[in-house]
Design a protein that fits this description.
By secondary structure, the protein is of the alpha/beta class. It has 21 helices and ten strands. The strands form two sheets. The chain has a six-stranded mixed beta sheet. It has a four-stranded antiparallel beta sheet with strand order 2-1-4-5, with no helix packed on it. α19 links the parallel β7 and β8. The chain is elongated and about 120 Å long. The N terminus is likely disordered. It is a multi-pass membrane protein.
Length: 604
């Protein structure tokens, strides 16, 4: 087992979380590119609020002046004014919803893209210690869970806050005494809403972790490999029970999340609904105790405003609760956006016009955990001239694959350097490295797409003739053309419609299409039977011709003709030379060859 796999159960996101004010400021920065559109929304919100509070004043004029005095002309104008305010409010509401939803979805797009881009830049070590389902859950569940908040919260806050302020000002203009009565309990309501929000935030964090756990189970157990393993091991029922247990936990968290503070918010709603009765009672007491009489029009208009105040106030409190709950989701997303990049492109990185293919390892040390872990590679010095071939052999865990992954910078050295044409790979641009180094590994990955699309992944602008030529060189063209749909055949999830040897040859064809001057072969034939191995080896020989080739060997029969062979043991080179030289030395390599020979002769 490679050292990085030991970290799988220990990795967790950074423990330090930003404070809430920092989170809020960071969330606000997400909307900065769209401040022009948000300004338009603000104007529409202000106009809508001003128009809506005009209606009660029109109503007061109808009740106190137009009807008592029999002024039908004034009545008609006031009635039309009320209709016009309703129409204007509706139009403004539709426009602000359109703009705010568009802005919200653009912010969602920016978040998804930023997280995906960040993950694309993470080192291979991150993915070897992180469950795939966890990564998918951050992008799908966490960002998806923020959709309502991002698309509507900003507008809801501005709209409701403006409506509340406008309503309070209008209420004070109508009667300051009734206004005081209406607002007495508002501070208590705000305190209740903030407390409910904090409680729901804690539950939301637990819920998202549980959803990530479920997503990981689904990803692992319902993949083709997971189904094969579950069926062949007779664990289908056990996996279902495990999933059911996780789902039960999610049910409990969902119920708790939805019911947390529900009674307290219901009390707020009841009190606000009962407020008109309190206002009528207060108005009656004021008049009965010798105070100035409140006209019927003023009272009705005030109650209308108060009821208009009820909806945005409750909505504002609910939005506050939702914002606090969503902070938990934003924190999970920010954790990924704040992940440190182990491998970055240096400022002023170089591009190599024409790559010859000279590769050298100079005093290379590497450790997966430099601070505390044992080194995987120590003091490795080896050079491969352009067009030459190097084979790396050794026991499992000796560091063979790790050594090869240092060339394309899937990992960075802890000490020393790896060079291509004399330039440290850390000083090269990522595009130069991708064009210079091709990798064919034992675990061939194919997308769930057509054969042609899988090959074009290496060269998107490749012509059909170039694809066919690469497939011929990889000795897979005849098989592809023999399929009912030819190059349009879907390869299936992870290429399961093709055999291991066929997938390897497709991977080789893909690399031929890429045409890299440096080639890494990481045990590319170790999982194949002897007959298939020969076909794949012929394709590899075609691929390797004229290229600098570094082969991580499992079967030593495939590397007899290598220009140089090095033997690794615990990360150190203990032998080097040609096949014949190492056999004559009678050391570790000779022992490995004897073992391979005995296994081959004893095989049926």
């Amino acid at each position: 087992m490679r050292p990085e796999n030991d970290l799988a159960s220990r990795w967790s996101p950074p423990k330090k979380k930003p404070t809430e004010p920092t989170d809020v400021r960071r969330i606000m920065r997400l909307f900065r590119p769209y401040r022009g559109r948000l300004a338009v929304v603000g104007v529409l919100v202000a106009l809508s609020s001003l128009v809506s509070v005009a209606s009660p004043f029109l109503l007061r004029a109808i009740l106190d002046t137009a009807i008592p005095q029999g002024r039908t002309g004034l009545l008609s104008v006031l009635a039309l004014g009320m209709i016009a305010t309703a129409v204007a409010t509706g139009v403004f509401g539709v426009l602000q919803t359109l703009i705010s939803t568009t802005v919200g979805q653009r912010v969602m797009h920016d978040l998804r893209t930023s997280v995906y881009e960040r993950l694309q830049r993470m080192s291979l070590a991150f993915f070897t210690r992180t469950r795939t389902g966890e990564v998918q859950s951050r992008i799908a569940n966490d960002i998806g869970g923020m959709q309502a908040t991002v698309t509507s919260t900003a507008t809801s806050l501005v709209s409701n806050a403006t409506a509340v302020i406008a309503s309070v000002v209008a209420m004070a203009a109508l009667d300051w005494r009734l206004t005081i009565v209406s607002l007495l309990l508002l501070p208590v309501f705000v305190w209740i809403a903030r407390r409910v929000g904090r409680e729901r935030k804690k539950i939301a964090t637990e819920r998202q972790k549980q959803m990530a756990s479920m997503s990981a189970i689904v990803t692992e157990s319902l993949s083709v490999s997971g189904i094969l393993l579950g069926r062949t091991m007779g664990r289908a029922d056990s996996l279902t029970r495990d999933f059911s247990t996780e789902s039960e936990r999610l049910v409990d968290l969902e119920v708790r999340s939805n019911m947390q503070g529900r009674w307290r918010m219901a009390v707020i709603g009841i009190v606000m609904s009962a407020m008109p009765a309190l206002l009528y009672w207060a108005a009656g007491l004021t008049t009965g105790h010798g105070g100035s009489a409140i006209s019927i029009g003023t009272l009705v208009a005030f109650v209308s405003l108060q009821q208009g105040l009820f909806r945005p106030t409750v909505s504002l409190l609910a939005t506050g609760v939702q914002v606090q709950t969503s902070l938990a989701l934003f924190q999970r997303i920010f954790e990924y956006l704040d992940l440190p990049l182990d491998i970055t492109e240096r400022p002023g990185a170089q591009s190599l016009g024409t790559v010859r293919g000279d590769v050298a390892f100079e005093g290379v040390d590497f450790a997966y955990e430099p601070e505390s872990g044992a080194p995987t590679l120590s003091g490795v010095d080896v050079a491969v001239p352009a067009g030459g071939s190097l084979a790396v052999v050794g026991a499992t865990g000796s560091g063979k694959s790790t050594l090869s992954y240092l060339v394309p910078r899937l990992y960075d050295v802890t000490a020393g350097r790896v060079t291509i044409d004399g330039t440290d790979v850390r000083d090269l641009t990522f595009d130069t490295l991708a064009a210079a180094v091709g990798v064919v590994s034992q675990e061939t990955y194919l997308f769930h797409a057509s054969v042609a699309e899988n090959l074009r992944f290496a060269k998107p602008d490749a012509t059909d003739e170039e694809i066919h030529a690469a497939a011929r060189a990889a000795q897979i063209h005849d098989h592809i053309t023999g399929l009912p749909d030819g190059y349009d055949t879907l390869v299936g999830e992870r290429g399961y419609r093709f055999s291991g040897g066929e997938k390897q040859r497709l991977a080789i064809a893909r690399t031929i299409l890429r045409n890299p001057p440096v080639l890494i072969l990481d045990e590319a034939t170790s999982a194949l039977d002897t007959r298939t191995e020969q076909a794949v080896q012929d394709a590899i020989d075609t691929l390797s011709a004229g290229r600098t080739t570094i082969t991580i060997a499992h079967r030593l029969s495939t590397i007899r003709d290598a220009d140089q062979i090095v033997v690794l043991d615990a990360g150190r080179i203990i032998e080097r030379g040609t096949h014949d030289e190492l056999l004559a030395a009678g050391g570790r390599y000779a022992a490995l060859v004897r073992r391979d020979t005995q296994l081959a002769t004893s095989a049926p």
